[in-house]
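#struct-pred

JT: dropping the chains for the assembly here, can someone run the whole complex?
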Amino acid sequence: MKLIIAIVKPFKLDAVREALTAAGVDGMTASEAKGFGRQKGQTEIYRGAEYEVNFLPKVRLEIVLDDDKVEAACEAIRSAANSEKIGDGKIFVLSVEEAIRIRTGETGAAAI
Amino acid sequence: MKLIIAIVKPFKLDAVREALTAAGVDGMTASEAKGFGRQKGQTEIYRGAEYEVNFLPKVRLEIVLDDDKVEAACEAIRSAANSEKIGDGKIFVLSVEEAIRIRTGETGAAAI
Amino acid sequence: MKLIIAIVKPFKLDAVREALTAAGVDGMTASEAKGFGRQKGQTEIYRGAEYEVNFLPKVRLEIVLDDDKVEAACEAIRSAANSEKIGDGKIFVLSVEEAIRIRTGETGAAAI
Amino acid sequence: MFMNKLKNFGLIAGLTVMASPAMAEVPGETAFIFNTLLFLIMGAFVMWMAAGFAMLESGMVRSKNVATICVKNVALFAIAGILYYVVGYNLMYSGVDAGFIGEFSMWSPDDSAYLGETPDFGEGDTYAAGSDWFFQMVFVATAASIVSGTLAERIKLWPFLGFVALLTAIIYPIQGSWTWGGGWLSEMGFADFAGSTIVHSVGGWAALTGALILGARSGRYTAAGTPVAMPGSSMPLATLGTFILWLGWFGFNGGSQLALGSAENAIAISQIFINTNLAAAGGVVAAMIASQMVYKKVDLTLALNGAIGGLVSITAEPLAPTGGLAILIGAVGGLLIVFSVTVLDRFKIDDVVGAIPAHLVCGIWGTLAVVLSNGEASLVTQLIGIASVGAFVVVTSSIGWLVLKAVVGIRASEEEELLGLDKSELGIEAYPEFSRS
Amino acid sequence: MFMNKLKNFGLIAGLTVMASPAMAEVPGETAFIFNTLLFLIMGAFVMWMAAGFAMLESGMVRSKNVATICVKNVALFAIAGILYYVVGYNLMYSGVDAGFIGEFSMWSPDDSAYLGETPDFGEGDTYAAGSDWFFQMVFVATAASIVSGTLAERIKLWPFLGFVALLTAIIYPIQGSWTWGGGWLSEMGFADFAGSTIVHSVGGWAALTGALILGARSGRYTAAGTPVAMPGSSMPLATLGTFILWLGWFGFNGGSQLALGSAENAIAISQIFINTNLAAAGGVVAAMIASQMVYKKVDLTLALNGAIGGLVSITAEPLAPTGGLAILIGAVGGLLIVFSVTVLDRFKIDDVVGAIPAHLVCGIWGTLAVVLSNGEASLVTQLIGIASVGAFVVVTSSIGWLVLKAVVGIRASEEEELLGLDKSELGIEAYPEFSRS
Amino acid sequence: MFMNKLKNFGLIAGLTVMASPAMAEVPGETAFIFNTLLFLIMGAFVMWMAAGFAMLESGMVRSKNVATICVKNVALFAIAGILYYVVGYNLMYSGVDAGFIGEFSMWSPDDSAYLGETPDFGEGDTYAAGSDWFFQMVFVATAASIVSGTLAERIKLWPFLGFVALLTAIIYPIQGSWTWGGGWLSEMGFADFAGSTIVHSVGGWAALTGALILGARSGRYTAAGTPVAMPGSSMPLATLGTFILWLGWFGFNGGSQLALGSAENAIAISQIFINTNLAAAGGVVAAMIASQMVYKKVDLTLALNGAIGGLVSITAEPLAPTGGLAILIGAVGGLLIVFSVTVLDRFKIDDVVGAIPAHLVCGIWGTLAVVLSNGEASLVTQLIGIASVGAFVVVTSSIGWLVLKAVVGIRASEEEELLGLDKSELGIEAYPEFSRS
Ligand SMILES: Nc1ncnc2c1ncn2[C@@H]1O[C@H](COP(=O)(O)OP(=O)(O)O)[C@@H](O)[C@H]1O
Ligand SMILES: Nc1ncnc2c1ncn2[C@@H]1O[C@H](COP(=O)(O)OP(=O)(O)O)[C@@H](O)[C@H]1O
Ligand SMILES: Nc1ncnc2c1ncn2[C@@H]1O[C@H](COP(=O)(O)OP(=O)(O)O)[C@@H](O)[C@H]1O
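RK: done, full complex below.
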């Protein structure tokens, strides 16, 4: 099993979720995040004082899935989240050793 | 060392924390998340327009711990978070290569 | 590639970001978190009822980077986040199998 | 109407004067306009209290129940207005005749005496019928608002509104008729200037009865009975609500002088404004000091409740006390808040916003405190008034709650409660955004 | 001025009286003060509605556009005040003479008749010129506030303020002159007591025109035309805004009686307060029931819109109906809200806060409903009034919007919209904190 | 009392009239009621400003300090009321006799002249003593509110309240006695109609002194002295607060006419309402344009400060200017805001909400601007008034702050500051929820 961590722009969340569902992914967990990268934040002015907004709003998705679905899922995320603008985000893949469904106690592939 | 990522229902947070403490886990990090899975969100109506609430509120827990505590911890989470209702959540286990306590610089098992 | 997860005190975020940039890290993702550990929360009183604030506010940073930058990055985080007070936080290092830049499709080291 | 209140007219800030011929200086029609204006403006201030309750309660419930408490507050104000028009007012004020109840009929204004060729403006004590209706209506809405705060986070929407209908159409008007409608309590000399008992305790008793029948929020008390704190979602909204109530109370108490058409009345209303403000101030300071001493920290929500407790405490007699006494009366109210919050918890009575301490406990205290400054009031009569109104409201409310419970159910399921009423009942969240950006 | 309105003076709550000699009982100067006071206090209440619109709109837009809607609301109130002073008032009230337009000149007060050795206070119908200006000014601001809500989340700041300038300096005053300024519509007998058409529909037409020219928010309708819900960021702020508007409306309608210097006026204003309140209540209850029946859930935002719809509906004639009729008129308004929200969506007209249903649809309904209680009003004249004002505002607003669009552009780019106007236009976020701790 | 103000009575909107026999048309008792009513209603509006400051400050501090700022605002209003009763009023108004200070004694009302067989209502300039007390009390609370905003996020709760006690019981009343109490400044002809200097600058000087002694929030300026932005937590609450203040200001300035019992007064108050509104509008527009030009973006918080700056600027003379001049006076205030915010930062004076620019800088400007329209005012006298009040408040406040600093400490530790005062001082969070669902 793998864990995909995808950082995407917030307004792309629905598109990514739909693409993933289409790619056969049934579950995922999202959270709010702020990202720092090549896409630079603006310099804002508040009451005459400049300040750098270094971190930009992103959504962070976690998807645990079978090894054989990883490629399709990454492709789904990539095509749905891509706006060809800087800051579109990243996909990271990590290895997962075990998964458990709390309700049933099922483990492994059955749990996800 | 392992990293346990547990996705649970928000109102189970306190019970899970207590169960983990009882199982000898001394530290953990929680964050807000929204989950998509078998538990389907409701269809809501706002000003006459239907909309799917696809993501349901969850709490995401991260616990780094020694290999030998993983089983007990998973069991603690499972029994505390289980309400036998769909959407109770998931436990994922990943391998951790290193841990460092910022304050002291301790590493490995001593750091957690 | 590695994934560094760093849990730090919120007011240290800017210092850590600067230290990481100085250490040659170009991207990172931050999210809000609450931590439970040795640093104990206060007992608060609300309308005469005591309650334990078990979880304290933290910021959670994720940084994916090349293996050879891990040490420098950990050191940067450690020195910037250290206030020598309990609760300063943790650094965890995990192994990452793949990274993809959504915008370009670049993978591996080129993606981060 | 208002016979009991009219008795107070001669009493100015602790100094009794004879009706003087100089009163005739204000022409009848001018006095009529002043009196009417008083009702309208002060009534508008009291109407504004509906927003105060809505904000206070929005700030003191958890986010998952905020939209529901908003809808309840808007709806109860609407229902109270309609029902007080259709049945409540006449039940309270029409043909009570020293008795126990008025008439079941729809209110309509009759201002014919003040129009036409030879209008008769009486002794300067007349006003447009509609202005009086408006002023009375906003009072009944206040009583209903009190209930919503206590029962928040677990009562279902429509049954709650059903109870509001009963309270505003029947329960409140009937007991109101006993005193302000010129019924038996007014004959006995029961003194409750602006409604510590008649408005605030009535809301408080109905809330208490509801809280007992409904039970506490799940998780509010541990198995061992220890209270579990459930902090409210927004302290600035709670603060805003309190300031709104404070402002509205000038209308509540000031307008209850019922006339502005003479210097005496203007002087009386000025004294009422001062005492209202000082009692609130006393309540805040006392609650802050008490919470600092007992809990070693100032509890903002107790300070806010302290303001309301002080205001309720002075409401039964905001005219006769000196400013100094008003501070003390309010301060006792503030102390009562801090201690009765704990007492309620001991009995596992779950009052989300602290309405029972503020409106019921301080309402009783305020009604008793009348004897400190109003020489015409007797402690025994005050106790009879408190007890009879309390008994009536407890009995009728219990019937109402139990019937609603049996017929439609009043309590959200535990699952709905955990999810929050906003999602389970309204399908709308108060703060719905996933990500704020 | 206000000739049409003055005609209503003799009509008290459905009962016509003859001018009686007793009216003379209120001395001229006293009546002058009462009338002035009415304008000032009721005007202050209406001014407060600016905060109501700001809060309602802040609660109904998404967080990323909240700071922008705040700045728009503060700025439009400022601009409306200045321009109504510099040009609007005289364009509306000076030298209209049964015609189509007043004078282009700056307003200045002339109270010389009421000062000096031999002041002349008329028949008790005089007031300080400035108090009237103040009362009229807050009305024009209301019309401008309506526009900001509909067009939120996508219109650029400065072009929006440019339109506000046009609306408050030119469009509103010219059509206002036709009726309240004593122009041709008032000659025809068009009856619009406090402005269902003249204020609310005017704002509504301008908003509708803007919404059509501006287009919907991106993502608001799917390719298939299905509306996509975009829930507002804060239900308690939306609720607060509605309560503020409800309170302010007592001033809006009550002050439109334009005089308080006699018992008749005081009685009339009392009736207006009652009807205003009952219509709002009817709107809330009807909208709640309708949304429960149609959608199986109570929609808080429709209940809030229902209150406003009820208020707008009674505004054209808040005096003549009985309370019962006022409830009905308001309830129809509440129903119209629930249904027209859906109709607008069918035409992909994106109205963020529901201002078009509340102010335009109910404004039309209210103007027609005048004939239900006011015997002097004719349905045909009402229709002529509605249509002519509508046509004028649609044409002039269209010109305004199109010129602005051509010259400076009115719409934020899609990217700016996605980012939120707060970041793209103001560089400030409404809730900027990364972590709240 | 109010001798200086009474001088203004004859001056109506820039046109001096002779006391005319027609004034006698309003009977003495009727005028008495009007005057009293003016104080009560306008006083209630000013009381509402306490909520405005609370909301403005809640919106402009970071979440971790919001509950604390709420408790401070409620508590300071309570304390100001009690102390102004116990000592402040008489220190300001009793036996000043062209001197420097009144009497140390508790206030109590004396209305005996207006009651009894032969009441004496003077020349129509009398009012209930209590109504005047109420109106004066809400002013002192305003001065105290100003201080809390500047010093937010770092001052400890109880020491702050200690300073409030000193300010409201001693400092404010003594300097107030010099002008409004009929003391030496009023003898000199110092003109400050509603308190640009006497209320706003006093609060501003006390805030400035406190800011200097307390120091900036940690992290507010870099080592190099560059200011670091610390955006406030909620722009809609800040906007709400500003609208509340704007509304309250009609009471602040309008009530300061001190009488409503004649046509002249009614006309004067109307002019005051207009000028108050136009100055605020001018302040908003000027601040918006200035911030657009200097920073290329509109800064909402500067626009809000601009409204307040405009309001403060017109407060010293809201009656004499024409509307056009009022716009200009307010606009200069708005510009002063934008620039003095930067100047304060240059000196590392950390003013969280911008109270010093709005209340002190614009207070000085407004006091000087009196000479633009009030022919009786002299620039030299105005400068003397500004300087003497400023010097007195700076010295006495410094003593107060330094004693508090030495005895109990006034500043939260750096750790407490980082954690936020809500957690360290109150143990309660303004928005405490971990997860909103
Ligand atoms: N090394 C990294 N580790 C973790 N997250 C990263 C890293 N680099 C970028 N990100 C995340 O991806 C987002 C987009 O990256 P950015 O460099 O701005 O643009 P792009 O993805 O187009 O190259 C960042 O805002 C951040 O959240
Ligand atoms: N493959 C997955 N990857 C990541 N998170 C998941 C995955 N599947 C489910 N989750 C998380 O677990 C939660 C519960 O899953 P769900 O399928 O609804 O119910 P259950 O756990 O009872 O099977 C989801 O809301 C989501 O947060
Ligand atoms: N085993 C763990 N797994 C995950 N997070 C942890 C763990 N232990 C501590 N943390 C995180 O690190 C934070 C700091 O830890 P704590 O024990 O309080 O102090 P210190 O880091 O100084 O030892 C915690 O608040 C929590 O967020």
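JT: nice. The pocket of adenosine-5'-diphosphate (ligand 2) is lined by residues A 27-29, 62-65, 101-103, 112; B 7, 35-39, 56, 58, 86-90 (CB under 6 Å). Chain D is about 65% helix and 0% strand.
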